[in-house]
Known about the structure:
Blueprint: H1 11-16, E1 24-27, E2 31-35, E3 45-49, H2 64-81, E4 86-90, E5 106-111, H3 127-143
Antiparallel strand pairs: 1-2, 2-3, 3-5, 4-5
Bound molecules: guanosine-5'-monophosphate.
Amino acid sequence: MSTAPYDDQNIFAKILRGEIPSHQVYTDADTVVFMDVMPQGPGHMLVVPRAPSRNLLDAGAEILGPLMRTVQRIARAAKRAFAADGVTVMQFNEPASGQTVFHLHFHVIPRFEGQPLEPHSGAMEKPEVLAANAEKVRQALAAEPPH
Length: 147
Ligand code: 5GP
């Protein structure tokens, strides 16, 4: 189990409650997807369950099916939206692993041959770039219904 309780003042809980803005790409009953403000590559997104958990270690098993369906759907859309060569999916648990926001999330990052990832939690991207990238993924999702 995790080492600390869930704190509902974390930044993703605030995004889920609409208390702070985000560039949203997709929502359904169980999940929300928005752009990472410090992308490790163009089109870096975060797939977040609505249900509160600190990370994978304390998450209820019942949330994982809907969550992974959205991760797969967003990974496919990301590949199409950015004509990517591949897609990296990452997820961290507790500070020792690199986790910095303590609400469960999966990173979905389009990848291009020969292009390394930018640093984790590095430079802030311009809002207009995040907005344009979010729109590309929304269009890719609209163009192809879920499998
Ligand atoms: P972690 O290190 O917990 O796996 O990832 C947290 C991610 O959240 C990082 O990639 C970081 O860039 C991103 N992030 C941090 N603060 C914000 C924010 O206020 N809004 C958004 N959209 N992303 C954030």
